[in-house]
Amino acid sequence: MQPIALAPRGVSIPMSELSKIAGAISQQLARDVAPHWNVSGIVMPFEHASDAPGEYWQILVVPDAHGVGGMHSRPERSDEPVIAIVQHQAKGMWSLAASHEAIEMLIDPLGANFRTGPDPRGSGKTVRFLVEVCDPCQSLGCAYALNGVWVSDFVLPSFYQNGGSSGPFTLKENVWSPLSVTSGGILSWQEADTGNWHQLSPTGFKGPIPESEVMQALQGANLRGAVDRRNGDYPGHLVADKELRQQKARIAAVEKSAQQRAGRRTAALEKFCAQHGL
Prior knowledge:
- Helix content is 30%, strand content 21%.
- By secondary structure, the protein is of the alpha/beta class.
- It has one domain (2-275).
- The strands form three sheets. It has a five-stranded mixed beta sheet with strand order 2-1-3-5-4. Strands 6-7-10-11-12 form a five-stranded antiparallel beta sheet.
- Helix 1 packs parallel to helix 2 (95-107), helix 3 packs across helix 4 and helix 5 (242-253) runs antiparallel to helix 6.
- The two termini are 29 Å apart.
């Protein structure tokens, strides 16, 4: 089971609120996500991110997520930590983005999980869909409540089986057909032959975006974030840039000593936050 720390950074959040939201997301992961996607995780609240043990991934609740509700980094190796940021909102509404990030971090921590299917544009090609399971139904209108906490809907494996399933396609049946999106949703895919990237949003198709441009914008962020940046949909900084990758490599290389690991990890978190003005 992968533990995930939930902690504020630059904002004041009562521990009671952190605990309530962490508990609801943990319940969602165990009750709703695990049976469909075969992942296991638990979210634990911390007053400070540096208090979490070294094996924990991180979700930081920040004042400003640079133009998005939330985003998680893309580790270059499986032994590097995954870090996400979500933007704080009043009345606990940031829980929706935290749920979104926790689910996607567990299902695709390396940002490289794909499912093949037919091109939504009707080209007849088989394309590779990026498995960002909350993106196609990412809106408050698709959310549902657990113990008074808003959490994100997510697509099921049947969503990627166009023509082979009658649904449901999301847990709460917010998407009525495979490979489609709701208001506020997004679907990203790559052509296998050209490497070009495309997206489907409620306003229509976006692309093609050459693979070389996406890789230039990647710099450790998840692929969805890189495609968004090339589309001009994401004005902020990438969650993980060259310096952050260097820090995460240092974190992965620390000695097994608990004291040394804790010291390096605290320094990495501080530098990560300093780089992003948190």
